[in-house]
Amino acid sequence: MSAAVQKTTGDFKNKQFSEEEVASKVVEQYDEVHARTFYKYVMGGGGYDIHYGMFRTASDGVFESSKNTNAALLRLLDQTRPVTKDSVVLDLGSGHGGLSHEIATTFGCKVVSFNISPEQNNMNLEEAARLGVKELISVVEGNFNDAATFPPKKLPKITHIVSCEVFCHAASKPALLSDIFKMLEPGGALVFTDIMGADGANEKALKDFTDRNATTEMARPSGYLQQMKDAGFAHVGFFDGSGHLLPYFAAMLDVCLKQGDDMVKDGVPRPYLDKWIASLTDRVKIQGDEAVFAWGLFSARKPGPLY
């Protein structure tokens, strides 16, 4: 009997997707069991976060730096519009729920986790129960690229929207920002991070990212700033954290190299892992040489009262 063929879905070699294709590929990228395992190692450091990190000490790794990003997002969210126990925060593309959990535990407010992956959503609710914040968190399954599920129906008044490394998967960034603007109550706050191409970078230079991720064309910082204004947002701002990308790419690669055998034992196919190692090796080099990727924290408010 021949050996079973290991699934390596989530590899998108030489492919950027159309607006019609990208949603199904997002599910493929994150919802397969081996992909969830991989991201918990390589971006979450064993935790519930799947996003880029901010480094405060030389000993920070993917786990610590991801938590630093969460802290920065929560500060910025509260600075953009105060978060109180009466606030309702929509975590757009909530993944495993790591950021939703921290918002609920920090502010004691209600959080709506909107996310495309059923398995991630189950993990979110299980961890929320363990942390004692299940009553504050509700999960809505949906796809923000599909008008049938986004904007979600019958939501409470949304005072804040936060999103972390999700807009890169939007079929149309301007359309998504327009929908977000409509969802927020007057004076509502939007805070998000995203991985982007640096202003001036061409798509070929970003190939090692787009080969591993379900994307259309990558955004640029200047483009997001203008698109937020075009959608109607005021007080638009951007903290350029691109300097944190090179150490984070290097930290991801370090996890793959040092913990790769453990990842394979936990079900990550060796070919899938090897492709990621090659991609991250290229990513570290090109970011070190040319700084073609950008990343940072955006903030904006819908016109209206601050309180």
TrEMBL record:
UniProt-recorded name of the protein: Methyltransferase type 11 domain-containing protein
